[in-house]
């Protein structure tokens, strides 16, 4: 009983931190947004958070879209990586497909933008490939 309560408390703490990072993605400071993306990247890469993300996927997708659209270089690269991890967490069901479908045009746009940084373009190419493999319903 005591271990379960401790685990529950740790999980709530992790979720609270994730919520803070998601809120920070809306910050005016590029450095703050990059730090939040870095933290989200680490969290999504190290723990399965499907249920938590399921409820917040639209909010996170909107924030990532904003980072990809308005950000530069490192921020775009991190947003592409976080998007890949979000797609992995959502899986091949309708939720993953929805995330991919909503951000696919933006990924292609950054990828084909010759003025975007090489790291941003590479990250968007990776995100496009991975998300397409995981979540694209259309075989083409």
TrEMBL record:
It comes from the Eukaryota. InterPro entries: ARM-like, ARM-type_fold, IFRD, Interferon-rel_develop_reg_N. Residues 5-139 form the Interferon-related developmental regulator N-terminal domain. Gene3D superfamilies: Leucine-rich Repeat Variant (1.25.10.10). Belongs to the IFRD family. This is IFRD2 regulator.
């Amino acid at each position: 009983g005591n271990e379960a309560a401790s685990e529950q408390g740790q999980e709530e703490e992790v979720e609270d931190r994730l919520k803070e990072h998601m809120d920070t993605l809306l910050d005016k400071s590029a450095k703050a947004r990059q730090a939040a993306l870095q933290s989200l990247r680490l969290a999504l890469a190290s723990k399965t958070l499907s249920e938590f993300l399921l409820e917040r996927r639209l909010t996170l997708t909107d924030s990532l879209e904003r980072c990809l659209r308005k950000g530069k270089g490192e921020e775009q690269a991190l947003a592409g990586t976080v998007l890949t991890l979000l797609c992995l967490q959502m899986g091949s069901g309708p939720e993953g497909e929805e995330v991919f479908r909503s951000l696919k045009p933006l990924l292609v746009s950054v990828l084909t933008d010759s003025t975007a940084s090489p790291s941003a373009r590479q990250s968007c190419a990776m995100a496009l490939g991975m998300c397409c493999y995981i979540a694209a319903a259309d075989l083409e």
